[in-house]
Structure formats: structure tokens, C-alpha cells
Amino acid sequence: MPHESLTVLDAGPSDGVDPDEFVRAAMQWHFAPTTGSRFWLDRAARLGFDPRQEVKGVADLALFPDVTDELREVRVADLIPRGYGSRVRLLNVFDSGGTTGAPKHVVQLDDWMWRSTEQVDRSLRAHRVPVGAQWLTVAPTGPHLVGDVLQRAAASLGGAGLSIDMDPRWVKKLIAAGKTDEVAAYTDHLVEQCRRILLTQDIGVLAATTPLLERFTREEDLLETINGKVKAIIWGGTHMDPDTRHLLSTDVFPDVPLIGMYGNTMMLTALLERVGLTASEPCVFDPVSPHVFLSVVHPGTAESVKVGERGQVVVSHVSKSMLIPNNAERDTALRVPPAAGHAGDAVGDVAPVPTVQGETVIEGVY
């Protein structure tokens, strides 16, 4: 493949490039000795196929095994493609929540940060999230991706981002140990921090997890404040079942649009729910070609379920900075046709699987 064809890897989510062409170029980049990362170059010999020859498009990403368990102990330097050379700008090292085992590491390079921010920004503007409004974000920061995504989203819309950190790993440990009183005390601690900001600052956008939104329903002053001045609520982290989504949308926050956000560390970004859905419809998240591809499969066979049926969510991230193909997530969802111009499946009514590799999945405050 001519070197010039690799320029497609610099395309953004709004450039309309062909997803299959993008995937082919990514295979050349990530598996060429001069441009690929040490992780993928070392792993190539054990794949059992040649990605540069046999991966001809999005559908062929299913040829890859799920290698995400190998990201638990990988050296950060081994994840950076050699093709960046001395021009590489490593902004962050994020890791997964560690819900089912040791956390998995990913890197965020400068070019991908801008691609992710552009994609989230476009989705927020399509939802008419107010420009210039102050945000209150209650989400994990530190090694977690979501806090960074939300802070950059606020900045991209020209708003100040006020934030409250949370430690979901600690809460999950408390839940696993049966220390419900300590979980409640920690949640109260988060609520009190939210109260100080919501009652004293002009917050136009609130980004919080489902458990916190549910906890707010017990606080009359917060409900009055949120319904009185917040213009949009972005929920994410843990999942929201259809009944809760309908109740929060119609009865608890009837005057504030609720916008779902679905993402994870291996995706390296977040997806906003499809524009125009009602509270009575399933919450649908579309893939973002040419970088994020979703599929909904039978867990035992990895074959696609029928449209409208529930299966396990499989996510592939393909960019110049990282390749994470065929990652079986700890989520189930309904298979939905994607929005026009996007490859793969959309996912509806996302819900957690109860166990992963024999370990119970604990959602907690996040």
C-alpha cells in the first residue's frame, strides 16, 4: 500500500471517509515495523493471520482476538506507535475501572484527544446543549477517562467546568465487603458537595451518574434548583434502565432534557444518545465512523444477533494512535440499525452483564 494512502488516518469523524478504507490504512500503520507499536508488532506473530493482507474492512476486525486482558500489565511506552517518532505528544494514560480484575491501560495522544473532543462537541451541539453555560461534572478523574472527556466537552462549548471527583473503585470495594453504611456516607458526601455548587453557582449543564441523579430525588432544594436553572443533564457511567429513564425524564426533571452518554476506557471516547428520542423509546447510541465500531453478538458464538434482539456489546477502537479491536464489553444491548453514514451496529437499552469471568459486576456510584 502506498505511503500516501495513510493520510486517511488523519481524518476526523466529520470528514466522511470510507470506514473500510480507514481500517485498511490502520492495519498498514499499526503492523508495519516502522510505524506500529511494540505491543502490536510483538503480538502480530501470535494472531494467526496477517492484518495487513487479510483485514480489508470493518467486518474483518472480528478476526482479532480480544487482547484487552493483555493491557493490564503492558508498558505504556509499548502502546505508542513508532510512526509518531519524536513528534509524539502523550497527554494522558488512562485505565479501566478495575471492576473485574486489574485495570487495563490505554494512552491518549494529542491527535486523538482532538478527534474525540470534536465528536463529542458535535453531538452536544446537535442536542442543543447551551453554549457558554457553566457545567457541574460529578465523575471520576485521575486515571479514569470520563472526567477528562466531560471537562474537555465543557471547554469546547465555551463553558467553565466545575467538577467533583468520585472514587468508584473505593465504593465498589465497600459494596463487595457489605459496608452499606459507608457507601451511604460517601454518597451523602458527594451530594453535599453538589449542593454547595448548585445553590451558589449558575450551573447550566449537570453531568452526573444515574445513582446520583436518583439520590437527588430525596433532596427537595436540589430538585427545585436543578429544575429551575439547569438546561441539560448528561447521565452516564452506570446504566439507566428504561423505567428509571422515563421517570426521571417525565416526573423528576420534566423541564430538563436528559441526554445519555455511553463510553468506556477501551472505546477511548464517549457516545451521546441519538438525537430526537422520546422518554418512551429505548435509549440508542450510534457508532462513530471511522473510529468506533459496535456490534451486538451472541456471547457463545460471536455471531450477530437479529436486529431488535439483545446480545453482548463488542467495541472496536481504530485510530492512528491506538488499535483496540473486537473488545467484548461487560454490557448487553439491543441491536439497532446505525444512523446513516456509520458502519456496524447501534446499541439500544444498554445494560450490564451480571458477571464477567465468574466475577460479579458491581456498579456502585459509577
What does this entry look like structurally?
The protein has ten helices and 15 strands. It is of the alpha/beta class. A six-stranded mixed β-sheet has the order 4-3-5-6-7-8, sandwiched between helices. A five-stranded antiparallel β-sheet has the order 9-13-12-11-10. Strand 11 and strand 12 form a beta hairpin.
Shape: globular
Radius of gyration: 20 Å
Percent helix: 25-40%
Termini separation (Å)?
Answer: 44 Å
Strand order of the largest sheet: 4-3-5-6-7-8
Approximately how much beta-strand content do the residues carry?
A: 15-25%
Q: How many beta strands in the DSSP annotation?
A: 15
Number of helices: 10
N-to-C order of helices and strands: HHHEEHEHEHHEHHEHEEEEEEEEE
SS class: alpha/beta
Biggest sheet: strands, sense, closure?
Answer: 6 strands, mixed
Low-confidence stretches: none
- Tell me, rounded to a whole number, the average pLDDT: 92
Keywords:
366 residues, alpha/beta, six-stranded mixed sheet, five-stranded antiparallel sheet, 24% strand
